[in-house]
Structures are given as C-alpha cells and as structure tokens.
Amino acid sequence: MSGERVLVVDDSDTARTLLTRTLERAGFAVVAASDGAAGALAALRGRPSVVVTDLDMPVMDGHQLLRLLKSEPSTASTPVVILTSHGEAPSRFWGSTIGADAYLTKDCDPKELIATVRRLASRARSPEPPGDAVDLGPLDVLGRVVRQLDASLLHATLVNTLLERCIGATDLHTASREILAVVDSVADASILAIGVTEPGAATLHALVSRPVSLAAAERFVGAVLARTDRDPKVIPDVVVTGQTEGTGDADPAHIVSVPLPLRGASGLLALLPSEPRQFDVASRHIVEGLASHAALVLDNARLGQRLQELSTLDGLTRLLNHRSIHERLAHELERADRHDRNVAVVICDLDLFKRVNDTHGHLAGDTALCAAAEAMTRVLRVSDACGRYGGEEFLIVLPETDLEAARRVAERLRRAVADHPVALASGASIPLTASFGVASHAELDSGSTADTLVSLADSRLYEAKAAGRNCVRP
C-alpha cells in the first residue's frame, strides 16, 4: 500500500498532526489541509486515493467538501472518510446521503482508521493525472462550489415542482402529462412522451410542445412504442396532447430516451430535442436526475388507478360495475334534463346462458361473458358507457341519443354478439345470442329517475325474450 496518497483535512493542528503520523506509519503518503477550501484545492490538484476529512471547519465544512468532490467528475470516485467528534444520527445520515464512503469518530481505534483507509484505497480506481487542475486557485474552487450549489438548487426546485403538480394525479395519463410539462420546461423539446408497459397493458402519453404535423407526431409515437418492451398483442392506450396542426417535422433518429425505474412495470421517458445538436450532456443529466422522482409519481398514479378500477370496474369483463354504470346513467339524466337533450338506455341479456354453464362449465361461461362484452364495446362510441348490470345482463347508456337511434345501436350490438361465436381454449366454439330492451328518457315524465328508465327498458327486454330471443324491442 506504500505510495497511496491520502488527503487529511482538519482545522485542528493537533488532530491533523496525529492523523498524518498514524497514516504515514501505516505506509501512506499523506497530504494535509487546514480547512475544507484548502482540502478541495488539494484534492482537485493532487487527486488522492482517499480523503479523510473533519466536519466542523471554517470557510468550507466537511459536508460541503464532500458534496463538491462527489459532484466533480475528476474526484467523484475518490473515497471520502468522514472523521469527526460528531456521532449524532442526523450528521451520519446526511454524510451517507451525499456520498460518504465511511464515517468514523475521532475517538475510534487508530487500527480501525488504518483498516478503513486501506480497504477504500484498495478498491478505489487509480487516480487520474491532475492535468489542468494544477492551475486551479481558490477562486476556481469557489466557482465550482457555487455551480454545484446552483445545480443542487435547480434539481431540488424541479423535484418540488414535479411533486406539487402531480400530488393529485390518480391515473397514468394525468401523471404523465404533468411530468412532461415539468421536463419540457428544462429540456427544450419538440415532442415528449412517457410510456408505461406492464403485463397485459401499455400506456403512452405524448406532449407536443412545438407545433408539428400530425404525421410527425404519429411517427414519434410509433418510434417510442418500438423502444418499449410492449407485447405486440397488447393495444396501447395512447393519448397525444398539444399542437398537432403545425408543419414541423420530427426525425425519430434524434430521440433521447431515459428509463424510468418503475415497480413491476417498464417505463420510458422519451423526448425529441428542438435542436438535437444543442442537446448537451448537461440537459440529459437534468432529465436523468428527475427519472427516479417521475417513477415514484407514476407508481403512485398506477396504484391510484388500480384502486379506482377496483371500485368502478367489473373484475371479469373490465366493464363498469353495477354501481358505476347506474351512477353514470344518473349523471347523464341530470345533464339531459339541464340541457334539454336526449339520453337512452339499452339493457341486454345473453340468451340461454345457464345452458352454457351447464354444458361447458363456468370457465366457458366466463369466457362467453368477456367475449360478449368485447364485441359490444367495439360497436359503441367513446361517449357511450357499457356496464355489467348483473349476472349475464349488461346496461348500455347512450347520451345524445333518441329512441330510434338507440334501437339501431341495439341492433348493431345484437349482430356483434351473434356474429362472433365464443372460442374456447379446447378449440370448440359456442354460438351466442342476446336479447335487447331499449328505452328513452323522452318517453318518461320530467324528473323520472334512472330506476324508472331501466325498468322500462327491462320490461321491453322481457318482450324480446317472449318474442323468441335474439331480437330488439321496441
């Protein structure tokens, strides 16, 4: 170990002398400094193998010295030992948090100090030659401290802004939109996106920050999706916000991507710099510094979204559950009364469903329910709502729809179910049909309730059943 350089930083002449003698007797070459600023200058000029520093010192204390050394590329890998009379938990916590490699008190056994320094020196990378650092002066060190403090303040401000904006986000799209807005404020990008993939699901939210064409935005989205580990069979839930009416182009070759460390999922933050050649290392470092915090926000949003889904969705079909579809109908009725609009409902019941369960088993029955739900969902508009009302019954809410239009929708739903036999895992298929009852709130007296409207549709469903099933009434 002879020849390994150790920098000792302590404002006490006595302590500095004792440490120097102890380490020199152990075979180390020791350089000493009387305060943190002098220690920083010596470390940047001399590139020691290990730094041993006190905490309480004038001009620059040990924590400030540690932060400076760990932020400088030339000394970031240099092991630092905090040696002080302080043994309090807060001091130890902060030292460890900002990068201290070891923490010893001044009353420790000298053998422990020597063993610690020897262990750290043995695993440390060989120090790089000082290079231009030999010309550094005190003002240069001060400038580096100020830059490091500014960078830390910028990072803390961005993290606080991110958390403040995202504190109420309970779904992935809302959380992604707010994260992208913060990143956009420091990244100068044309388009940004966050992609999250997990088993059976994929979500991507893109923010168009500078006007580009819709085709350019679509190329960017496609390129980002290609960088995720999404199962090709999973249809991604994609939302694009921002200005897509411009003429600007987007070259996917210049996309910058940063992984997001999500729990049980894969995340990616991608952006297209407005000026790719000017997107430097500093900009990427700022974006990467936000990655872990963005991931935490997204994990919380995923949890909130899951809890929301558990309370609103049917666990089997993933449609709205009984309570949620009933609440949706009540909301649409209130809106229809307020704005003098139409709203209609369709109630559907799968025909002879008990026979499916009795003949093929309940797993086949579950498959049939999911197949019917999927077939009907494909027919509906985005503004429509479909829910599992109970057993093999479904309730569909159709805003801005009169009775005749609702009857046509119900007919399309009937054909969608009948035209798609249920494929079982065994290779067999089950023909499936359904009966439908339709009602419009315009048929009822003013102020009628959701229950009244559903009851009217239900009575017509029984008429369809009585007419031979697989039909629509009225």
Overview of the molecule:
The chain has three domains: 5-130, Rossmann fold (3-Layer(aba) Sandwich), CATH 3.40.50.2300; 165-308, Beta-Lactamase; 322-473, Reverse transcriptase/Diguanylate cyclase domain (Alpha-Beta Plaits). It has 474 residues and is α/β, with parallel strands linked by helices. It starts with a strand and ends with a strand. The chain has helices at residues 13-25, 36-46, 62-71, 89-97, 110-123, 138-166, 172-187, 214-227, 281-289, 291-312, 322-339, 353-360, 362-379, 403-418, 450-466; strands at 5-9, 29-33, 50-53, 80-84, 102-105, 189-198, 201-208, 237-242, 256-260, 266-273, 343-350, 385-390, 393-399, 422-423, 429-430, 434-440, 472-473. The mean pLDDT is 88.
